[in-house]
Design brief:
The complex is a heterodimer of chains A (about 110) and B (about 450). Chain A has one domain (about 5-105): Orthogonal Bundle (Arc Repressor Mutant, subunit A), CATH 1.10.10. Chain A is about 60% helix and about 5% strand. Chain A contains 5 helices and 2 strands; from the N terminus they run H-H-H-H-E-E-H. Chain A has helices spanning about 5-10, 15-25, 30-40, 50-60, 80-105; strands at about 65, 75-80. Chain B has 2 domains: about 5-95, no CATH class; about 110-445, 7 Propeller (Methylamine Dehydrogenase, Chain H), CATH 2.130.10.10. In chain B, the strands form 7 sheets. Chain B has a 4-stranded antiparallel beta sheet with strand order 1-2-3-4, with no helix packed on it. Chain B has a 4-stranded antiparallel beta sheet with strand order 5-6-7-8, with no helix packed on it. Classes of the chains: A mainly alpha (about 110), B alpha+beta (about 450). The interface of A and B includes residues 39, 40, 41 and 56 of A.
Chain lengths: ~110, ~450
């Protein structure tokens, strides 16, 4: 199964999962920090229901793992498998961007 | 929905998840809700999450949480039914009044004014195919929508209020005749023969010139006959590769004419602002380049007399330049650490807070304006990085001397707009989308 299939299995949580994996790729974060980071780098304001819906699925797939809680806050970190799936997904997106640039002939600072 | 009600409903809905789910995620989700500004979207996402978790075979459904979910459904229906009966006629009337108000999938992105005619054009949506709306803002506290069209964004409005310029989905400049603001008519699309994505537009103060900029080039159009604009010339902004290679860090594009229309400032090119003499637009030439800022200019503005240029950088520094000799701009004021002060009222982070990093990758939304008398500089800071005690935005005022130095700054307001703020003509009203809303609002400053 290709990367598309693995992410497609996440259904409506596919896009949030990609954002979460990206957020965790530079270090562990707890829930609210993940929401803030995602809003910062993508402008997407993720709601808690979506965040934890995606986190539970990522955890079940072994792409993120929970760390020990700090009071009520539980940080999450990306696993090696999560890094691998993120890298594959980014490569797919790069391919899409490359084709889109060629087909729309848009010079995006190139 | 009132935030208090949304917050209480959100917490209740956490309890509607299956027991195993609650044991695993309940505490941390409640902790997130303690810090999160709950809205109707929050309630909807938690409702969907609870239903999804109940249907998930991985979490054995227990009777208690299922009963809670049923109870939540009954409570929601009990609240919604009478509210719908009461509010439906009111809502219908408001819908009639705000018929032209965009359907609000996106926040306000930009606004352009024609102060003498009382018109404003707004563009909604972060996508470049945003909806444009023409408003009568003779009284900004009681705006009247006049028409809407799919022109794109950003937008510029000619000083006589007769022509709107937009950047289309395809990155070209389009001109709309709004002589009758209730019936905008597309006149033409400007063809520069280049075809690359334009980023910014600006009309000259007399409305005779339209400047359209992309990252490294500015096109000057003669607008004597708006239906048949004529390309007067192009200006190439310097683009230099950074030392040691790597991608070229382009500034946020910005563009503005001086009040007398003789100087055009552009934040095109790399890491710099360029001043152009456009006294004769067909023979425009570069006056000076303000470079080596070490930061990207996000927004700038001329003072009413045109003798100063105020600018805000990506990392929240305010810079003022004297243009007494526009060929030799001289920096007269620098205020740094604006972001820290925007986030932390005392100017210092609390011990429990993570100080803002120098290389934060968050989005920055800024607006900058001088007061009409030129004696006050106002900057609106809205940053996306979140912090437990951060506000949505912070508005700063500084007294400005004639030579361009700044006195002690004060915080004029906090927690007003969200997303991109716009300072309306007059300098004492901020226009933007309020937190959690996709409508726009005008906030008078003290």
């Amino acid at each position: 199964m290709g990367v598309h299939g693995k992410f497609d299995d996440l259904g409506r949580f596919a896009d949030p999962s990609l954002l979460i994996l990206t957020s965790l790729s530079d270090g562990p974060k707890h829930g609210y920090a993940i929401m803030g980071d995602i809003a910062g780098f993508s402008g997407v304001r993720m709601e808690p229901g979506t965040l934890y819906g995606a986190l539970s699925r990522l955890e079940r797939r072994g792409w993120v793992r929970p760390l020990a809680t700090d009071e009520r806050r539980r940080p999450y970190e990306i696993t090696a498998a999560g890094q691998e799936i993120l890298a594959e997904q980014v490569m797919t997106m790069q391919q899409i961007v490359r084709v889109a640039r060629l087909r729309t002939a848009m010079a995006w600072g190139a | 929905m009132r935030p208090g009600l949304a917050g209480r409903l959100s917490r209740f809905l956490v309890g509607c998840h299956p027991r195993r789910w609650r044991e695993r995620y309940g505490e941390e989700m409640l902790d997130v809700l303690d810090q999160h500004h709950a809205t109707a979207r929050t309630v909807a996402s938690l409702w969907a999450s609870a239903v999804s978790a109940q249907l998930d075979p991985a979490y054995r459904t227990d009777r208690l949480s299922l009963a809670r979910l049923r109870r939540a459904a009954l409570i929601s229906a009990a609240i919604a039914a009478p509210l719908a009966l009461v509010l439906a006629p009111v809502g219908y009337g408001m819908w009639q009044d705000s018929y032209w108000h965009p359907a609000a999938d996106e926040p306000l992105e930009t606004a352009a004014f024609s102060p003498h005619t009382g018109l404003m054009v707004t563009a909604f949506g972060e996508a470049i195919d945003g909806t444009d709306v023409v408003w009568d803002v003779t009284d900004l506290s009681r705006p009247r929508p006049l028409s809407q069209f799919e022109g794109g964004q950003p937008v510029a409005l000619s000083p006589d209020g007769r022509t709107v310029a937009t950047i289309t989905y395809h990155g070209q400049a389009a001109l709309w005749n709004v002589t009758d603001p209730r019936h905008p008519v597309e006149m033409t699309t400007l063809s520069d023969g280049d075809g690359t994505q334009l980023e910014e537009l600006a009309f000259s103060p007399d409305g005779k010139i339209l400047a359209a900029a992309r990252y490294d080039r500015i096109f000057l159009w003669d607008m004597a006959r708006p239906a048949r604009p004529r390309l007067l010339g192009t200006l190439d902004a310097p683009v230099t590769a950074p030392e040691g290679g790597g991608p070229i860090p382009f500034s946020q594009q910005d563009l503005a004419f001086s009040p007398d229309g003789t100087v055009l400032a552009s934040a095109t090119g790399t890491d710099q602002v360029t001043l152009w003499n456009v006294t004769d637009p067909a023979r425009a030439y570069r006056l000076a380049t303000i470079s080596s800022l070490g930061d990207f200019i996000q927004a700038f503005t001329f003072s009413p007399r045109g003798n100063l240029l105020g600018a805000v950088t990506y990392h929240g520094a305010v810079l003022v330049y004297s243009l007494a000799n526009p060929a030799r701009p001289a920096r007269t004021a620098t205020v740094s650490s604006l972001l820290t002060r925007a986030f932390f009222p005392s100017g210092l982070p609390r011990p429990s807070e993570t100080p803002l990093c120098a290389a934060c990758s968050g989005l920055g939304n800024y607006a900058v304006a001088f007061a009409p008398d030129g004696h006050t500089l106002t900057v609106v800071v809205d940053r996306e990085e979140m912090s437990a005690n951060s506000g949505r935005d912070t508005i700063f005022d500084w007294p400005v001397t004639g030579s361009g130095t700044l006195g002690a700054g004060t915080v004029a307001a906090r927690d007003v707009a969200d997303f991109q703020p716009v300072i309306a003509p007059g300098g004492r009203t901020v226009v933007g989308s309020p937190p959690g809303s996709h409508a726009w609002h005008a906030w008078p400053l003290p």
